[in-house]
Amino acid sequence: MLGIGIDIGSTATKVVALDEGGELLSSEVMPTGYSSVDAAERAREALLAHGFDVAAEDARVVATGYGRVAVPFADKVVTEITCHGVGAVRLFGPDGTVIDVGGQDTKVIQLRAGRVAKFAMNDKCAAGTGRFLEVMADRLGVSQRELADLARTGDDVKISSMCTVFAESEVISLVGAGKPREDIAHGIIESVVSRVAALAGQGSAPYFLTGGLCENDYVVERLGTLLGSPVATCPEARFAGALGAAERALSLK
After folding, report:
1. Whole-model pTM?
2. Hey, what domains does the chain have and what are their CATH numbers?
3. CA of 151: how far to CAs of 42, 137, 155, 170, 182, in Å?
4. pLDDT band of 125, cuts 50, 70, 90
5. DSSP run (H or E) holding 91
């Protein structure tokens, strides 16, 4: 039995294959690009390159994420709330609050005894998303990692707009006013982290961070400070949705 999870997000597509015992056989991440249908086909080709055929008799495929309905070879589609919950239980344990900062939205999922007890999401226009950090880093001419490094040494600058477009206008104004890049970077990171922390504060410790920001040490550090409790994460947490989908695939007949 082979369990395959495909998580097509708005920015990145994650693919995971598990054996029948739940052991990780393969994981891969790639840009989603313009078309979720194309991303699904590239995911299929990536699996085939690793020797896993989605059409094999013993293979089961579950799709999740923003583009989950665009995977024609999926045996089932499951919401990202459920899959991130299952993936987080696998990675961190049965109880706690999962924070998933995605490209288009941020999800906070409360787990109790290994099940989703409650969840909340931010407004898609809100600046507290991974895509906002990507756009702002591009605006400052740096990578997201460099943005975080700059933010560590910057002084407090307020970016108050809740909308990504208006927040970007604020950043442009700050650049035009000659504010140091470190200060602007600090304001950008704080803008995102404060909004995420306000949403995550509806849950309770322990906290777990999944998604594309799980390897951003500064974001993890600031989230922990604002929440008043350490935030656990790991590189595999980026694949939480795909891992959860693969786990669900193993349960299909």
Report:
1. 0.93
2. 2-83+239-250 (3.30.420.40)
3. 36, 11, 8, 17, 5
4. low
5. helix 80-92
